[in-house]
Amino acid sequence: MKHEDNLQMRKAGESRQFGSTWKMRVLLIEAFYGGSHKQLMDLLQEELQEDCVLCTLPAKKWHWRARTAALYFMQTVPINPNYRILFASSVLNLAELTALRPDLGKLKKVLYFHENQLVYPVQKFQERDFQYGYNQILSCLVADVVVFNSAFNMESFLTSIGKFMKLIPDHRPKDLEEIIRPKCQVLYFPVRFPDVSREHDKGPETFFEVLLKLKEKDLPFHVSVLGEAFSEIPDIFSEAKKALGSSVLHWGYLPRKDEYFQALCMADVVISTAKHEFFGVAMVEAVYCGCYPLCPKALVYPEIFPAEYLYSTPEQLFKRLQNFCKRPDIVRKHLYKGETAGFSWAALGSKFRSLLAAEPREDL
């Protein structure tokens, strides 16, 4: 779908009846309509039969989306007395939007966290970095329900609030974690699995260093480096592509999802060297397609994958890959010992439907 700078709205089907004659409408707002954010909104709109309206901004200039999207949506979200639910990702400053649009403030407000800014790694901690986390705290305070895509995401956010607020020099607010926590729940990201037989913050340096070490030892392997490229691409990517040479099968973004899944089905192992991950949609998709996962023993990964698929150091990762290069049959015959079904829409759909259900309010 081509992204335009103007508001994008689409309606999905007729509204359903919920034990009454009133019609329920769900307002979906995504200030960063790309990647997993786009996947979730598209899935909700397609799978839910309620009369949904989707309002988006393109997935670029993330910092400006976090700063100013509320003002944009104030002007562009159409007024409609039938709205009952507002569902938005935490990129949006929900506190600002509901102050600017009191009609939206009356709705049941659901805030979904794909990631949180309280533990997001930054190279330099400047004043503007504080604002992003602060915005998310404010959004939680005005939301009715706060949903996280993993327990790691939820706990890392909630337990960091106290320390984060100590950055304020004086007159600090108190007990914010205690206020927000009762609203919170975990609802895993619903992955749309295919019908198959089998960014800087993702730590590319470690990934390529291990591969180049395998190359130096003349170990046989091929690699596919897949994914969407945004405005800033680390130099290590171009350097590694040149150094890996004929070992590269695929490089870069595959625009068609079926081509992407086909590349995953051809692979034996999928590797994460992420320094920052709150769920890991791509890793779960790859495992569903038959890949043996190797992930850091940190972040969200121990919550998602069994212990045997985790490594603690780059050296451990290298040794396991070295062994796989010498004995590819180990991974090709391996049966994954975890499960992916729990991350599917089939498993999670009813929970999302309940989340997006609300009884009509007398004041609306």
Count of strand segments: 12
For the record, what CATH class of the largest domain applies?
Alpha Beta
Structural class: alpha/beta
Strand content: 15-25%
The biggest beta sheet reads: 7 strands, mixed
- The amount of helix comes to 40-55%
Would you identify the CATH architecture of the largest domain?
Answer: 3-Layer(aba) Sandwich
Radius of gyration: 22 Å
How does this model look, in words?
- The protein is built from 16 helices and twelve strands.
- With 364 residues, the chain is an alpha/beta fold.
- The protein has a seven-stranded mixed sheet with strand order 1-3-2-4-5-6-7, with helices on both faces.
- The protein is globular.
- The model is unreliable at 1-22 (pLDDT under 50).
Q: Concise description?
A:
With 364 residues, the chain is α/β, with parallel strands linked by helices. It contains 16 helices and 12 strands. The protein folds into 2 domains: 11-189 and 345-355, Glycogen Phosphorylase B (Rossmann fold), CATH 3.40.50; 200-343, 3-Layer(aba) Sandwich (Rossmann fold).
